[in-house]
């Protein structure tokens, strides 16, 4: 083991220490070449989005809540012989994912995507293919 460590150390190239200011300057220069813009301004613009207006409970029509509720209970009932509140919650989250991530053009307006009936809306996405953890 000592022989292997000695051979590794004797063949390793010498280190060339650089200051943090030099490394930061190098990283910014490479990033600006890659982005074609000032990296600090790009990061500021990317992270300073206005907050999305989230729908309130009054914005969601009752027919939509009833329809999604029926679909969630039917879907969970087909998949599982016994289920709990968490199963309903998870399936409701899956079925309404595209609607929760949508945004409105004008703040304070009722979102236009609630006017589409849930059965005709593209809110059913295939289940993700990532591995699921087994609950034991």
Q: What can be said about this structure in brief?
A:
The protein is mostly helical.
List the keywords.
disordered C terminus, elongated, 136 residues, 0% strand, single chain, mainly alpha
Task: Tell me the series of helices and strands, N- to C-terminal.
Answer: HHHHHH
Radius of gyration: 27 Å
The end-to-end span amounts to 43 Å
Strand content is under 5%
Mean pLDDT across every amino acid position: 77
Supply the number of helical segments.
6
Q: Which residue ranges are poorly predicted, with pLDDT under 50 across at least 5 consecutive positions? A: 101-110, 120-136
Number of strands: 0
- Describe the biggest sheet? none
Q: Per the principal axes of the C-alpha atoms, what is the gross shape? A: elongated
Helix content: 40-55%
- Structural category is mainly alpha
């Amino acid at each position: 083991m000592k022989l292997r460590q000695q051979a590794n150390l004797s063949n390793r190239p010498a280190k060339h220490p650089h200051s943090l200011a030099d490394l930061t300057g190098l990283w910014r220069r490479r990033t600006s070449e890659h982005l074609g813009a000032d990296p600090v301004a790009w990061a500021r613009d990317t992270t300073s989005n206005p907050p999305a207006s989230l729908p309130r409970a009054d914005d969601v029509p009752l027919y939509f809540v009833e329809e999604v509720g029926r679909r969630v209970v039917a879907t969970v009932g087909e998949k599982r012989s016994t289920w709990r509140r968490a199963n309903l919650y998870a399936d409701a989250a899956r079925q309404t994912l595209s609607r929760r991530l949508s945004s409105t053009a004008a703040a304070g307006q009722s979102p236009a995507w609630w006017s589409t009936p849930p059965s005709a809306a593209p809110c059913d996405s295939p289940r993700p293919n990532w591995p699921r953890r087994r609950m034991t």
